[in-house]
Structure formats: structure tokens, C-alpha cells
């Protein structure tokens, strides 16, 4: 998994260096695909889910401005000065998966957009720090939610962090929020974090309301109110003592 994560990180780094006004999301997809080929890895996203009615058609997801996740790369989706773009990539190496994402500005961006990205990235760091043996998934969720909401932003409810291993989505869901007080909702079961657990944490944060919707392409998720959004993700491993290992860092 460490090698799958390293390859994923290399693909993201190559795309980060290529982001500029005038480049298309299709070109960024081709850059990531070439990195995976060079390192004898395959794309975790391409054709996902196997046998599904609408398999994903690309190596990466590229989501611009109010597009939260799962944007489909296209040659006519060209980045403009002032945009923010979220790039997500997954690599499969010798049967193991790495999954990671970041959001960045294209040229000069607004102060509000920069603050959104900074808060979302810091929320990921805070969540990772809570991913320690002896804690529970709820500890991660609450830490992310409290930090994001303290800064006046909202946390997306519909999508969560997830287990990663030999498949891209495995057991152990880690929401980025948690019901308050004694409120109980289906699917909200806090699980103990044990050494050896591997999963992806991925805060998704909106400037406006937390509600989202899926476009007619069956994949692209956008904010329902059209507000800007950001997404950062790392695959990590819980260690016996101390902080977790970030598997998708170089």
C-alpha cells in the first residue's frame, strides 16, 4: 500500500505542477495516466464500479469551483484564472490501492477561496492526527466538523472517508461530521481504531450550505446552492503508537 500511495502522490504532484490557466482537465488526466503507466500501476477510478451501469471513464476526477467531487475530465473543460480545482487520483499497484486528492487555485484566487482551501487542508491534518490507536472514528469526525464550522464553513454530509486496501472502498466509514447529543442516525456507529487499519480521510467543505446534488452525467457532485467547495484526502495507516502513517505522501 505504501508503494501504491507513493505512485498516487507522484501523479498528483505532476498534475499540481501542470495546473495553469488554459490547461484542460483532459490534459491533466493524461498526465496522471502517464505517471501510473511509468510506475506499472493501473487506475483505480477507470471503469469503476466494475459491472456498474455508468462506469467512470477516466483516470482522475477533476472538479472545478462548485463541483465537489467526481468531475469527469474533458477536453472542453479548460481551467481559467481564479478557478479552484480539486484533483483526485487512485492507483492500484500489485493489488493494493492508494487514494488521495487536493484542491488548488488556478493563478490568483479570491481571499475567500484561499481561506476555504486552507481550512479544508488543515481539517484533514487535524483528522489525521486523531487517527490513533485507542481513539474511535467519532473522534476524527467531531474534530473535523468542529474545526470547519468554527471557521464559518459547512461540512458535506453525504460523502465520507472509507476503508482502503485491496479495494478502493472497504469497510470502516469515517464521516466528516457527527450527530449531536443523543441523536442516533442509521450508519453512525463509532468504531475503535486498531493498529493496521488503513483508510482514506477526505474532508469536503462548502462555503455555503452542506447540501449537494449529482449532475446528469451520473458522477459530478456539485453544491446545491452553487457555492465554492474544497476537498483534500490522504490514505493513512493506524500505527501501534503515535500518529498514523500517511501512505499517500512523498
Task: Explain what you see.
The chain has 250 residues and is an alpha+beta fold. The protein has one domain (2-246): Alpha-Beta Complex (Creatine Amidinohydrolase). 26% of the residues lie in helices and 25% in strands. The protein contains 4 helices and 15 strands. The strands form 4 sheets. Strands 8-7-9-14-15 form a 5-stranded antiparallel sheet. The chain starts with a helix and ends with a strand. The model has no long low-confidence stretch (mean pLDDT 96).
Put the structure in a nutshell.
The protein is an alpha+beta fold and 250 residues long. 26% of the residues lie in helices and 25% in strands.
Structure summary, number of beta strands? 15
For the termini, the CA-CA separation is 13 Å
**Helix fraction?**
25-40%
The strands making up the biggest β-sheet line up spatially as: 8-7-9-14-15
Order of helices and strands: HHEEEEEHHEEEEEEEEEE
Strand content: 15-25%
Q: What is CATH's topology name?
A: Creatine Amidinohydrolase
Number of helices: 4
